[in-house]
Amino acid sequence: MENLWLTSLRLHRRALDLSSVQLDGSHTLAKNGGAAISYQGRKAGRTTKALFLADNQGLPLAVATPQAGNQHDTFELERVFAELCDLLKAAELRLEGLFLNADKAFDVSNLRQAYARRGIEANIPRNRRSADWQTDDDTPLDPELYRRRLAIERLNA
Q1: Helix (H, G, I), strand (E, B) or coil at 121
Q2: What is the spatial distance between Cα 70 and Cα 49, in angstroms, rounded to a whole number?
Q3: How many domains does the chain have?
């Protein structure tokens, strides 16, 4: 199934809008069980989480392996993000120079370093509530670019 998806991305590369990419996660109730589920009190049920990457139009580019829903949103986030990047590389899509939009949950210093190592420009608002909040006040945030996140919110809805 993965090979089919990667081939589809390669063949339709010109239809993708990679002027920016959107990163988001989804926390979903798993009523009928399955892999990578666990009880989440906030959702009052067994849940699973997945991380998605979409192009600027909201077309899905990559989906990470689902994780159990009882973990914190930043649990193994760097590893899961690397999985998304590996999928893009396998589809022969360039990571260098991409503008990545994500919400405050992705404002984690080791993840910001992972973006930078791959040549990805992160456009993420600062999360002042995070225990890992180490981002400088002068971290750039382009509000016009950030509004494009609506594409992935529509995808997950």
Answers
A1: strand
A2: 9
A3: 1
Query: Global pTM?
Result: 0.81
Pairing of strands 60-63, 67-68: unpaired
What is the mean predicted confidence (pLDDT) over 18-45? 73
- Please, which residues have CB within 8 angstroms of residue 136's CB and are 6 or more apart in sequence? none
Q: Which two tokens stand for residue 151?
A: 């594409």
Q: Write out the residue range of the structural domain in which residue 129 sits.
A: 2-156
Q: Is the pLDDT of residue 27 over 60?
A: yes
Residue 117 burial by Cβ neighbours in a 10 Å radius (0-12, 13-18, 19+): exposed
- Binning the chain into helix, strand and coil, the percentages to the nearest 5 are 35, 20, 45
Task: State the CATH number of the domain containing residue 42.
Answer: 3.30.420
Burial class (CB in 10 A: 0-12, 13-18, 19+), 99: middle
Q: What is the pLDDT of residue 59?
A: 92
